Amino acid sequence: MSTTTAPAGGSKAAAATADYLDQRTGIGTAVKEFARKIFPDHWSFLLGEIALYSFVTLIISGVFLTMFFVPSMNEVHYEGPWPALDGVEMSEAFASTLRLSFEVTGGLLMRQIHHWAALIFMAAIVTHMMRVFFTGAFRKPRELNWVVGFVLLILGLGAGFTGYSLPDDVLSGNGLRITDGVVRSIPILGSYLSYFIFGGEFPGHDVIPRLFTLHILVVPGLILALVGLHLFFVVLHKHTQYPGSGRTNANVVGFPLFPIYVAKAGGYFFVVFGVIALLGATMSINPVWNYGPYDPSPVSAGAQPDWYMLFLEGSLRLMPGQTEYVLFGPDGWTLSLNVLIPAVVVPGVLFTLLALYPFVEAFATGDKREHHLLDRPRNRPFRTAFGVSLLTAFFILVLAGSNDLIATHFALSINDITWVFRVLLFVGPWAMFVITKRICLGLQRKDRELVLHGHETGQIVRFASGEYIEVHKPLDAHERWLRVQHDAIRPIEIEPAEDSRGVRRKGYRLDRLRQRLSQTFYEDRVEPVTPAELEASHSHGEHDALGSDQEKPPAQLLAEGAPTGGGTRLRPQDETDTDARNR
To answer: Where is the composition biased (Basic and acidic residues) (predicted)?
Structure first.
């Protein structure tokens, strides 16, 4: 006899609610599709999640701060628990920041959580983009998603700058003063843009309310929209994965979204939030009460913005100051190259190169295939070296932004430090490009050596003929596949400039540009091992098999025709890709 247990009241209500929503929205189909979505399991894929969870933390803490912050530049006299500023004239924005820090319960904690979350948010975005860049995850069909991520980076800088400037303290006021100078350096339009931003002559009375609107409404709204678009592209294109056994461009090896990945992601959010909360509770950051309200007169050493804006500060500090010119007569326009070049041209060049790189590489290779397997950085020497050179320039500018702190802490001449950084800015990226490229080529040669001969064991044996050899441990099929699976991209070959009748071919200049660019990218390369090369190395390397059967003497192994290190296949047995080079 069997009995049927009626569903509990709560389960019945949940089922009815789910059925109601499914019939009216079709959400069941979407949930079923997303629940079966496979995501690869690798720690580097969590960098983007750190950025997402930091942004969620920013929104949660930002809502709290918005309830108490007063975005006004009206002057008041402070009366509060901080005695050093008692009776001092300041803006309502700064006074409300002090009230948040000392009078609102949990206000200081939320301020510091918000600030630390912003720093980690930008760090996670930069690190995530580095992972995408160095592994080639931006290739077709993900070029547009790279652009979306790049715009998110720029919006993150905007969100950080607008929020950093809101307290109206001395430090943020100096940053706004620099911003005003940068805007005014733009030829012809500079003064008009400055008046528009500040509502008149600097500092005006409108900049804090305008920055507040941008910070809590415009920039977060754009970030939310682009985050949604970014995740949509991830789902649409399926997730990239690192090369390995059973992984091809046609599949994804990993865990389903529900329940495994959802549980991991949920737990990881609380880990990120907990770390940020711990930093906010134990490490003081941006103590505006020590700086005081904004006053253009007190400027001293140690006035640095947050780390993600230090490159702009460093660029300004490295530029010589005697580079101003007046155009069109004494009453014409002043061209301030000492501000325009470091604050507009240099960042513009760096960011433009970063944004357009996927399209430049696609143009150089002429590759129109879809790529879902990631590259090993060593297998793309030019890209890896180019990325390292960009990072080198960025780090040099960051250090230059702290040249005054370096001088005071190490008792050095600030002029000498500045000149050293000026030289490094031109020499450092070039030197790191060359060094990184040579390292990548050396690692590729090492991979060839390992595939052809195996790992060195340090064991020396002697043949009956008196010859001494070192036993090599052969690579297994999976390790060998990892070291040879990449494509050997060669420089593009083009048609001659003139056809058979001597008529100049249309489009030759563009083809010639592509060929030169392709040669720059791929002229220096190391070809992966082919099956013929592996077979040839086996035919002359029977002693490599000694490592797998060491109890037999070399003479017996030779007499038995022992196989050499690892067989002749270059890919695992379960690999189904039809790449002729690896069959």
So the answer is: 535-552, 571-583
- What residue has token string 């995740």? 231
Amino acid letter, residue 137: A
Q: Examine residue 391 and state whether it is found in any structural domain, yes or no.
A: no
- What are 140's two structure tokens? 């077709």
213 & 309 share domain: yes
Flag the least confident range among 220-234, 408-422, 465-479: 465-479
Residue 93's nearest CA partner among 204, 202, 209, 196 is: 209
Which of 359, 375, 391 is the endpoint of a domain? Answer: 375
Q: Are 495 and 505 in contact (CB under 8 A)?
A: yes
Residue 169 CB contacts under 8 Å (≥ 6 apart), including other chains = 94, 97, 288, 291, 292, 293, 294
Examine the domain organization and report whether 68 and 174 are in the same domain.
Answer: yes
> What's residue 386's pLDDT?
94
As for how many domains the chain has, the answer is 2
pTM reported for the whole predicted model:
0.85
Q: Are residues 361 and 505 in the same domain?
A: no
Q: Are 272 and 508 in contact (CB under 8 A)?
A: no
Enter the tokens of residue 486: 């990449």
Above 80 in pLDDT, residue 581? no
Are residues 455 and 412 in contact, defined by beta-carbon separation less than 8 angstroms? no
